Fold this protein.
Amino acid sequence: MVQVTPFLVVLSLALVAPGLSAEKCLLTGTWINDLGSNMTLGPVNRRGDFEGSYLTAVTTSQNKIQKSPLQGSLHNMNKNSQPTFGFTVNWSFSESVTVFTGQCFVDKEGKEVLKTMWLLRSHVDNIGDDWKATR
């Protein structure tokens, strides 16, 4: 019986150790940014693809803001606890598209935070106006 006890202690430490690692950051759910824009992301499939919607709180368009569809991809979703991702929003109320890229983090308090950069491409009527189409 003495020889079994050390084995059980090692086994219990091995079972507890995964719980000591950093929490996994999950994209699925509703996100609200500093300006009040609201994004809802559906489940991520086995390939890392996901869909959702984006309701922006800010725009330069004169049109009424509408919820817009988005499609994205999560990189190495099974390997990293704080994964990188990208998604595209096809704005329903304007002739523009925005691409976002970023990373999902779990902060010291256990809160999930998305850090992103974006690039917006607006429609222009001719190539001479191309310089002002991307922000």
Remarks:
- The chain has one domain: 29-132.
- Residues 1-21 have pLDDT under 50 and may be disordered.
- The beta strands are 29-32, 38-41, 49-55, 68-74, 84-90, 96-106, 112-122.
